[in-house]
Structures are given as C-alpha cells and as structure tokens.
## 1
Amino acid sequence: AQLLKSSLEGIEEFGKNLQGGELRVSFPGTELGRQLAQVARVIKARALIGAERDGFFCQLGGFDSHGDFFNTINRKFTMINDALEAFATEMKFPDESGQSAWGSITIIQASEFGRTMVSNGRGTDHGWGGMHWLAGGQVNGGRMFGRFPESLLPNSDLMLSRGRIVPTTSWEALWYGVAQWMGVDEEHMEGVLPNKHNFAPGQLFTDDDLYAPPSPPPAPAAPPPPLPPAVPMPPALP
C-alpha cells in the first residue's frame, strides 16, 4: 500500500512539473508529432524534474510496405520530417539560463530489419541490412560510416536473393560512441555493450567519430590601446 501511495504521489508531482515544460512550437497532431511533443515537454521541465540524463523511445509503425510502397513511404517520411523539424526547433530555443537543450540531445533512428532492393511488383519485402542515422546539436553530421556495397548487382558479394543486403557493420557500433558521449567510462562499458569484446579495434565508432569536438573557448579580449603620453606641465611662474 505504501509503495502504491508513493507511486501515485510521484506521478502527481511529475504531472505538476510537466506543466513547466511549455512549448513554443506547434507540433503536428500525427502519431510521431504527439510523441515528440511529450518528449519536448519533459526535456523543457528537466530542471524541475531533477533529470540529469534521460532516454526516450518513440515509435512509428506501418513501414511493412509489401504493397503501395511509394505512397506509404512518402506519407511516413513527411510525417517524420514534420515531427523532427518541430522538435529540433523547440529544443533550440534557450531556456531560463540562456542555454538550449539541442546541444545535449542525440536522436537515433532504428528499424528491426531492412527491405529488399528488388520490388515484389507493388512494394518491397523483408530484407536484412539497412541504414540508421543520428542527429543532434553535437553530432558531426553529413558523413557515412560502414562499408557501402561497391555493387548492387545480383552477383555482388554483399547481395543475397532479391536484393537482400548482407550487413557489414554491427548495430552496436554506433552505441559505443553514444555511450561514451553520455559519460559511460570504459570500466562500465561491458554492462552497456556486453558483446563489446567480440569486436576488433576500429569496428565500434567512438564519440570522436560521431561527435564534433567541443568549441574552443572564446579568445580573450584585446587589451585597450595605450594612453597618449601626458602633456608636460608648464613651469611654475616665479
């Protein structure tokens, strides 16, 4: 009974603190837009909640595009773009301290499997290898990691039946650098990535690979120019 009481009190307190996460941006009313709006409220109220590091999970289904591929993908990509644009804009607004949260955020896109490169007539079927992306204020973007297939022809060494690509980079590769960025030291990394010991050096991406280096401190202000020489005093009158 005491545990239930404390849980209900915690939920009530969390709800009160969440009211401090007022949003400035109008989020789309889509499935993903509503989820990211709630995430934004929690982040905006992080000082009241007392959060240091948080992880949020949003999901969007409907990508099983065995049929009507183009309409499905265009509709889903538009939904993702609109929701992420609203979220990033909201996170770039400065808070009461004058700092925005965007520099402390990493967004990771994930899917449980890729799709075939060859159409089934109306869409695509279940594949194997795929792609993931990262975004955030400190992410050093505009680059690709992993081994991209040199050929997409059926006889390629990375191509299986009907355009199923063999993955060359582990899903865990990016999580190593993200964990470092979040402050996990090497001593505790095995608890986060228990398969880490199975990878050779260079197969896991570090935080230096994924994130831009911190901005250097501003240069000190230039010293003021020297004062002009003092005008000599006239000699005293006799």
## 2
Amino acid sequence: MNNIIETAEDHIEPIPAELDILYQDEHYAAIYKPAGLLVHRSWIAKEATQFAMQMLRDQLGQYVYPVHRLDRPTSGVLIMAKSSDAAKHLSVLFAEHAIRKTYLAVVRGYIEGEHLLDYPLKEKLDKMVDGKAQQDKPAQSAITHYKGLQKSELPYPSGKFTTSRYSLVELKPETGRKHQLRRHMHHLSHHIIGDTTYGDGRHNRLFRDLNHAGLWLIANQLSFVHPYTKQNISIVCPRPERWKQMFKLMNWK
C-alpha cells in the first residue's frame, strides 16, 4: 500500500498508552488515530517512535494490516484488518469507492448549503520517493461533496477586514487523491485551518496564537457493507478534546 505521510505539522495531541478502539470484530478493528501519530514507520519521519499499527498490534496481541491512510496531522477513524484476506476484501471496497468517508474541517470564510466540486488534480509526486515516476501525467478526476454546517466570526483583523470568518464543513470525498480535501479547499479559497502546505499562513498563525495549533481536519465517520457479514457498518469518531475546545472558541453546538 502506498502510504506516504507528511511530517510538517508538530504533534499536537497526546499519544495515549492504548489507542481508543471504536469498532472491533473477528476481521477488523477501527481506532481513533490522534493527530501527529504515524500509521506505520516511515523514512520521512525518522524521529518518530510511536506508530498506530504497532500500538494496535501490541494492544490486540496479533498482527494487523493497514488498508487505507490518514496523513500524520489528520485525526480520526482508521480501520485495520486482522488478516491478509480481510485486508484484501476491504481494499477492494476502497478501490471501488464503496467506503463512505465523512470528514469535518474548520476552514476560512463562510460556506453555506451543499455543493459538489469536480476539479481534477495532478498527481503529487515526492522528489525522493517518486523519482522514477512519470512526471507529466494528466490530472486525475477528483470529486468532493462539501456542506457548511456552522459558521463563526472572531474579533481578529484579517487583511482589510476587521474580523475573521470561519466555517465548520462536512467533506465527503468521492475519489481518493493525495491531499484531495486540502487541495480542493485551497482551490475554493476556503483553506483548512492549520494546513501548512496548502493553507493560509495568517489564519494558521492566529490559531497557533490562540493555542489551537495543528491541522483542523478529522475523519469523522466511515461506513461500508461488511465484506463477511453483509451488515451495514458505520463507525463514528467521538469528538476529541481539542475539537471540543475549538467548538467552545467558535461558540458552535
């Protein structure tokens, strides 16, 4: 599995001694991955000593297999398989876009209503990892459904404006391009707060000064038809403490 994880953002959530298991059966286990925790070892972050795969393996006392990725600064629902066969079945569902993924993000500006963004993205290549990859590939289809949930205005100047406006948005990627949600929100000029790669530095600095550092993107829900039982499974992430504090700052419900 191609699981390249960036390391730009600092660890901004404490890593617990044991991971919170959100769902478990004989085939799969889903955890809450804190922001800053790598899914597995990576040469890109040689300084890291804790990894979700190893922690869950030790916690369950058995080998686990990753079937999808969450970037290091992104928190939320992460599911792993307990066997190679279970991993293959779930990987097929991901490849066929049969896994419904729902994210929440805090973005700059006001977003109201429901929208669909169909904006192709060029493949993001790493100079060291993808040195031999084709550099002139055409842009790939990338589709994101997004909806404004809540909005807030903070009494801090932003450019020529005397206040700063923000929205809580629900993001549902229909495709799975690298950094798709972050790049799509950048394209809309509704940058995700704390995004040091595609975001707005002024707003990132403001939230660091307000003690709300880090990327404000969370994998909130994962839904699919279980490959073995054929039951509808929906795994929802409880609201983490740092998100509770953000909701308090924004006066959101």
## 3
Amino acid sequence: MTRLDPIRCYQYVPEPVEGLAALPLVRDYWNEIDCDSELTAEMLVNANQDTAAYVIRSLRCYPRSLIAKRATRDWMYALEPCKTRPNSLKQKTIDGEIVYVGPHGECKGWIILGATQDPQEIATLMQMIRSAAE
C-alpha cells in the first residue's frame, strides 16, 4: 500500500541568470536553440554541496516555475518549469495564457536537465543563480 503525503506547491517567476550561455554545459547546445532569449537556471543541492541537479532554460519558453515540497519532514523537492500559471483552463483563458496550436502546427521549447558532482560546476552555478536573485 502506498501512502500519499500532501505536498505544498509554490509558483514564481525566476530572474534571468547572466553568463549561462558561456558555460560548457550550455554552450554545446547554444547553436541549436533559440539564442535571442534570456536564460534562467534553478538548482537543487544536497547539504554537503557535493551533488546537485539543475534545470536551465529559456525564459521565453518557460517563464514560470513551480516548486513542490512534500509536506512532511523529509527533503523531497521537485522543480517544474512551466509556460503558464497552474490555474484552471477557464482562468487561463480569462488571463490570456492559452496557447492554441492549430492542425499540423507546432510549439517548440527546450530545457537542459543535468546533474553534477563537480564542486567547481556546483559553485559556479550557485554563484550565478544567487547573483540573479540580488
């Protein structure tokens, strides 16, 4: 039997993070992606700061984020880049957040997901993200 714990979700609009396009983990993809959009990054780091998971993306593709935490004493977190707020379809229509893709149409977006145990990479990303928040 699986126990379902309640979760708390928070929505926010992340700030642009300067210098991400120059990082090796982004630079390799830069020619393949939309190069004229601001980038942002989010990262979850363990207590020892020796292991991290990160999400890097264009703010044009995914201008918002949801962060979820299990409402218990454990440390489970989840990040979800999103295009719109987590409202009902009716509210999204009222707010003008509906994106209609017609027959044979397409809607593109990209996200770089990664994990690292490189202390230098963790420190660099952490500093860049903190600088954006200041």
## 4
Amino acid sequence: MKYLLLDPLLLSIPHEGSSGTHVKNWFESLNAWLGEVENSIHTWCCSANCLNNAIETNTLPSFNTLRSLTRQHNLDFNTTLISKRFTEFIRNSRRLTDLLQTKAVSYSDGKIEPIELTIHRDPDKTNLEHDLMSVACDAFIQKDLAHNLIYVATSAGKPHAELKISCLVLEALQDDATTVLSNQPVNHHLPLITSPEDILSESSLADFMGHGAAGLKAAINLELKKKHGIKTSPDFRFGVNFWHSIETNGLHKDIALFGKIARVAAVVLVGRAQDANLDLRHLRKTKTAGAPQQEREPDKAKAWRLTLTTNGIGWRMHFWAIPSSDGGASASFEFADVLKKNDAELITY
C-alpha cells in the first residue's frame, strides 16, 4: 500500500483575481484527484497545518464557493459531486503528522525542490516545509511510511519525477520527547506525480485483489481509464449486498471473474452495456411477459440484469440506473448483486 500526500494548493481555492484558465485547470485537477481518492486502495494524506490554515482563512472549496467560481468563470463542472467528494476526503484522509514518528523538528538550511510544484504562498509554505522535513527524518531512521509516501502535485511546468527534501536537523523529537536525531544532515527524495494516470500506469487487476470492495472500485476505475479513456470517475456506488454477494460466492479470489466484473461494470458506466453482448434486459416486477420494469422509490432508479458468464454456473449481475434530478439520462449507477443464473431474480433495494 502506498501513502499519497495531496499538495495543499489542490485543497485551497485559487487566489482572488486568478485567470479563468488557472481556475479551470484547478477545477480539473481537483475533480480528477478526488475521483481517484474515492475509488483508491491507497491511504491518502494531507498536511494538518495547511488544512487548518485553509479553514481559518476560509479558502476550502465549499459548495457555495465552487458554484460561485463556476458562474464567475462560466465553467461547466458538477459542483455538487465535487463538494461531496471533497467533504468525504476531509473526513476520511489521514493527517500526515499522525502517521510520522518524528513529531517536532528544528532545522536550518531547509530546501525543497522543485519549489514551483509545491507551494507559492505563506504560511502554507512554512507549514508544508516543516511536515516534509519530518518525512525526511523518518526516512533517515528507516521508517516504512516515509519510503512509501508519494507527493501528489498540481500540474505545472515540465514533469518532475521527484520532490527533493534536504536540511540540517538540529533536533528531531518523537511523541515522548525522545531525541531521534540531532545535528544531522538529511536528504530524501519523494516520488512526485501530477496525474492519476501516474498511479495506474503500472497497475494490473491482480494488484487490486485482496483489498475488498475498495479494491474492486479501484479495478473498475483502472478499466475506465485504460480501456475507455475516462479520466474522471463517473458517479457509482456498491449497494449493501454487492460486495457480500461477490465474497460469499468466492468471486473475489478468482482473477478471471474479478476482472470480468470490473470490465462489465466499466462498460455499464460508460453507457455501452447494450452493445457489449451482455444480454442486458429489464429486471421486471413479475415474470409475466410485458410486466413493468422494477423501480424503487424515492430516486426512481430502474432495475437491470445482465450476463457476466454464459458457461458453467452462469453468473449474472443486477444494478440500478439512477436518473438525473430532471428525469433525463442516468446520472449514477448502483451495483446491487452478483448471482447464479438459476437464482431467484431478486434485487437488493
């Protein structure tokens, strides 16, 4: 498992007076990374000091602020979804200082390169620099987290593969105030990425097995990006029984079926299930020919059934297509159950 630290610039709204192009690029980066966070098997971190500063200065991307920015710059982004994902990130992400053994560092000659890809404003620059010096200390004393941490930067300038951290540590303390380093020069290079594709470029489906429902969501995301060119994850979720039905049938341990579920789910999400030889059909209220399709309240979602495999047991999958608030095309999907072809056609609500 990797630990990914989000650049504080991603988590604060652009400066007042920023150009429309800059604001648009920020929206695209934030949207892409929050979509990645939602379906990731990795641990995501943020700087607690930088986050607290954003709260104090009212620069967090709230729904109202996001909506105001899109209107001001005439941008077309789903601010409701971005706001929801951002709130979940703040709730679920780990604070970097909680994960490090080095809790307090005094140092001189601190240096971070390339500076243009980290922070451009105070006090965030000071806050982030202090956190990264603690990372360098943990790396020096061979703590695993520091060697598994990746820095997630905004896209700016030419690509860089590393974030270089160096300083002279005057004193570094752990929780119990024990000194772990003193008068010690430290240098550490953090892998640096600027696009979600950087995470997935070397990934395979096998990498996601063994990580439960989060692993399957990440595998679906991999299919969307690699096979369908979808950079931002569509809105989807697993119903209360979906992962349970996969696990109880042992499908989470079968790489062929695990992969098939991920591929088919991706096809559903891009709206191509009808053309993919999956025998897509309505899940009806009764077996009577012409019976109406099942619909649930209050979201008016429609129930669907498709074929995962035709030979042997014959696996099927049920899902809900949830319409947009104006009754138009499906705005999101909920995967409900995986079952055998001879099982009763009952969909989990």
